[in-house]
Amino acid sequence: MVTSFHRKRHDAPLEGASPVQKAQGRVGSVMRRGKVVQPTTSDQRLLDNRGLGDWVNSDPWRVMRIQSEFVEGFGALAELGPAISVFGSARTKPGSPFYDLGIEVGERLAQKGFATITGGGPGAMEAANKGAVLGGGVSVGLGIELPFEQGMNEFVELGVDFRYFFVRKVMFVKYAQGFIVLPGGIGTLDELFEAACLVQTKKVTKFPIVLVGRDYWTGLLQWLDGPVLESGNISPGDTSLFTIVDTPEEAVAAMGEPHL
Predict the structure, then answer these.
(1) Residues 116, 129: Cα–Cα separation, whole Å
(2) In the prediction, which pLDDT does 216 show?
(3) Would strands 24-27 and 30-33 be described as parallel, antiparallel, or unpaired?
């Protein structure tokens, strides 16, 4: 009787509560909902224009917060071991071919001795984290503060939330041997070209970048080898920074052997 009573009370909606889900947001390690959600993110406040004297009161102190994010990320990942960063769309639906592709990539990475690092969100990221767990490997998520709540997917075993994109990007590169890029959109393209720029400018060396899905990615490379190259905006051979494959087996093989 008591259990039934408590379950009924627990299941009942709060008096006056809206049937619409409350707005949610995350500020670093702090989660906010409803009326306490902040309308802007730390990145946005950092990059927006300010008055001429505002930096005197805010920017120097913001450096301390940025420093703390680097320290926290380095501390969490320093002993991770060999790892590969896997990128892909948060909009990829469970049960879709791209989602299944992500699962197999994560699983094969684990079987080869790699940890899998993703952005920690849903979609292709969730799929790769799930595959890592299924394969007995280490599943890592590097989350980011966004105006809308995304949250860590349930398959992340080691998760770190960041306020600043640029700190998070350092972690993706510093603790990975290479990138595997699943089909994705603007965020995925941002991560892809960030890596390509670092390799092209020799900031990182021996860093494979593998695009999975020939049908999805071939048009991008044709554009780069076409008008972008013809206009002199890249050098001949720059597209050789990318390797296109069709299968998770090929993608993982292109990462080479795990090393510290």
Answers:
(1) 7
(2) 97
(3) antiparallel
Tell me whether residue 204 is in a domain.
Answer: yes
Structure-token pair, residue 73: 């990320």
| CATH number, residue 246 | 3.40.50.450
What are the structure tokens assigned to 70, written together? 């680097």
Residue type present at position 207 = F
Type of residue found at 54: D
- The count of structural domains within the chain is 1
Find the helix or strand (DSSP H, E) in which 105 lies. helix 97-112
119-130 exposure pattern, b = at least 16 Cβ within 10 A, e = fewer: bbbbbbbbbbbb
List pLDDT tens digits, range 105-124: 999 999 999 999 999 999 99
Cα distances (angstroms) measured from residue 112 to each of 12, 97, 101: 48, 23, 17
Domain assignment of residue 29, yes or no: no
pTM over 0.90: no
Parent domain of 225: 71-253
